[in-house]
Design a protein that fits this description.
Chain lengths: 190, 190
DNA sequence: TATGGAAGTCAACATTCATTGACTTTTTTG
DNA sequence: CAAAAAAGTCAATGAATGTTGACTTCCATA
């Protein structure tokens, strides 16, 4: 219908990049509007304000249905995502966004709660087994740490590396996380 | 000689807590001055401005000589640090500060460079062996991820846990990181 | 063509921020 | 005690922020 949908999309695109790269509080609406080639006032008109625009970008952040699918192995899903440079960049940006805003006074609780409801709680059920909560936390820790070291801290050992090498590093750590406190039994991996 | 040293210390104490909990850009000098019961103008007078005050808090952040000591095992040093609730809280706060400010437009580069010069480069030498750079990155990734999941994201599996349990989780992941590609099995080189 | 509503533009507002300079109080020194 | 230096106080400034309301432009429809 309205032609304003294009404007909305341009704003969401610019806002996603800005919020995810610099964090919520460090991003100004004027900068977003400038990148989107749109007047600042339209943000408050269409999204109700800065917080509404951030929420609009959040809804697409946690869209990862494969991860919690009962038919697929979460490890393989994660490795596959990071093996592809494009999806790797996206996923790493999402994680950085979460970490950067998880303690923001204005959006921190929203980010943590959304992450938990849409991803972590289902993933804990998917992982299952004994101490699922503990192994989930270690699993997430590995993903978060690797992403931060790679994209945010930019350590050469993980940043200046081919995608397949990074995938091998990640697989090593992820499996170590999920196999915590397991009996040292030799099992065949598909 | 001057009595202003007390004021400086109060400011640094308040600034450390504020900067480390809320990040550089989200912290206002007025709030710091209020907590320290000191006039705002004295910050610019004594430290030259906001950036100078932040630098003053940075110098104490990376003081961890044991970690790079040739006489001690970095794994045991880390585990020992996190096994003690008090030093655990301090170290976790430092890591969160690094992650929160590593991409700040104003202090990001300073934080990354200081971290690298004072801790990571010596630690890479200390770790040594083949692929020291890679294993260092994975080592740091585990520490960063665990700290963030525990204190920032607050996942119950790692946050609501006794210190010794957390220490066991950490040891498991850290050793997995440092033992990457150390298979006892003979493998061909491609 | 005229009309009404949607879409977009512009200027202004009230806040908050870091920083500065002039001023006052306190302490040291002669 | 008096002068000087140090330490602390206060108000103001300019810049940047999110948000609002009035205004103008565009376009489909009668």
């Amino acid at each position: 219908m309205g032609n304003s949908d294009i404007t909305r999309d341009k704003l969401i695109a610019a806002a996603t990049q800005a919020f995810w790269e610099q964090g919520y509080s460090n991003t100004s609406l004027r900068k977003i509007a400038q990148v989107a080639s749109v007047d600042v006032a339209l943000i408050s008109r269409y999204f109700g304000g800065k917080l509404g625009l951030f929420k609009a970008t959040l809804t697409t952040a946690f869209d990862w249905p494969e991860l919690i699918s009962p038919d697929k192995d979460p490890v393989e899903v994660v490795i596959g995502k990071y093996a592809n440079p494009e999806s790797d960049a996206h996923q790493t940006s999402v994680i950085r966004m979460i970490v950067m805003n998880a303690n923001d006074p204005q959006v921190g609780e929203l980010v943590r709660q959304t992450l938990r409801n849409t991803l972590l709680d289902p993933l804990e059920v998917r992982i299952g087994g004994p101490q699922a909560s503990t192994r989930l936390a270690m699993f997430v820790a590995v993903l978060v740490g690797a992403s931060m070291v790679r994209q945010s801290l930019q350590l050469p050992g993980m940043a200046a590396v081919e995608p397949d090498v990074y995938a091998r590093q990640l697989r090593h750590l992820v499996e170590a996380a999920l196999h915590f406190d397991e009996e040292p039994e030799v099992s065949e991996q598909g």
